[in-house]
Structure formats: C-alpha cells, structure tokens
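Incident log, support desk, overnight shift.

02:14 A customer reports that sequence design results differ from what the structure should imply. Their input is reproduced verbatim below. On-call engineer (initials T.W.) acknowledged and began investigating.
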C-alpha cells in the first residue's frame, strides 16, 4: 500500500505541470508568417486596410478580430493582416485574449475609408488605467475605471503606419 505522504509531492508536481501546460496553450509564441510586403494600391471603389499589433505585454498573447461582423481569427504580437474592402463605413472589433482563453479587454472602432485609400489601424495592449486611455476601451468587471490590461485601437497616419508595420509578419488564417 502507498502512503499518503508519498503521494503529496507527486500530486503537487502533477498540479504544477498541469497548470503550466494550460498556461502555455494561450502563449502566442513568435509570429511565423512571412515578413511584411505591401499590397498593390486598391482599385477604384476599394480601400486597403492594414490592422497590426506591435506591442508585447507579458501573458497576453493574442487579440481576436472581427471586421464588419466577420471573424478574422487572432492577431498575435508582431503580426498584421491586410484587407481589401469597399469604400465606405466599416467596424472593427477586437478582444484581448488572456492566456488565449478569456477576453480580458475589448474595443470597437467605426471608421470610414475612401476609394483608393490605404488605412492603418494599430492595436496595442496597455497596463495603464483606462482613465488615461480612450473612453471606448473597456475592462470587464471593473467599476473604478482601471484595468490590469486595456486594449487600445486607433487609426494612424500612413507615414507612421507604414514604418511600424515594416518589420511585422503576416498573420496566418
């Protein structure tokens, strides 16, 4: 018969190993897609939208994206995605995923693009209080306007966007 005392260290090690395995499921790892390559300018009636994420916040591996209600999957730190869309109003939504499992913070942005325009949208995670950031950034369950991690999203000008995206990798679908 095995004593209870002998099982205690084994159970602790099993618990720690299980916890580490679960946490590693959400770690995004390094992006593996191809390096940034600019797409051709959009045709008449269309616009080009780049959505990218170039920050690294520990423990927050990915942001889930939706564009005009269509699920685009997840965007890891150091990745971008490119969309050719019709000119007009659009909505992008993102949710910052904690360990790849839970939405920790989310953001919605409505914007308009014109025919032939290239639009850059930057996602970033911040550990600042929400009071210092955009009012549209939210953190569930917090009533004091502070968040452990807030998701920020905004348009950036072409010069800044093209520079920031130049070293990123394309997100894999």
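02:41 Re-run completed on a clean worker. Output:
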């Amino acid at each position: 018969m095995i004593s209870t005392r002998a099982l205690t260290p084994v159970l602790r090690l099993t618990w720690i190993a299980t916890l580490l395995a679960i946490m590693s499921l959400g770690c995004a790892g390094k992006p593996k897609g191809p390096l940034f390559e600019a797409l051709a300018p959009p045709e008449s009636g269309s616009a080009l939208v780049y959505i990218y994420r170039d920050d690294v916040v520990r423990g927050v591996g990915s942001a889930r994206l939706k564009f005009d209600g269509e699920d685009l999957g997840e965007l890891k730190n150091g990745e971008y995605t490119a969309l050719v869309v019709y000119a007009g109003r659009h909505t992008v939504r993102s949710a910052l995923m904690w360990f790849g499992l839970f939405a920790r913070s989310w953001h919605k942005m409505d914007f308009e693009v014109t025919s032939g325009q290239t639009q850059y949208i930057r996602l970033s995670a911040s550990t600042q209080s929400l009071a210092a950031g955009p009012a549209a950034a939210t953190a569930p369950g917090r009533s004091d306007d502070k968040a452990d991690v807030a998701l920020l999203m905004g348009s950036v000008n072409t010069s800044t966007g093209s520079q920031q995206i130049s070293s990123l990798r394309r997100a894999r679908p």
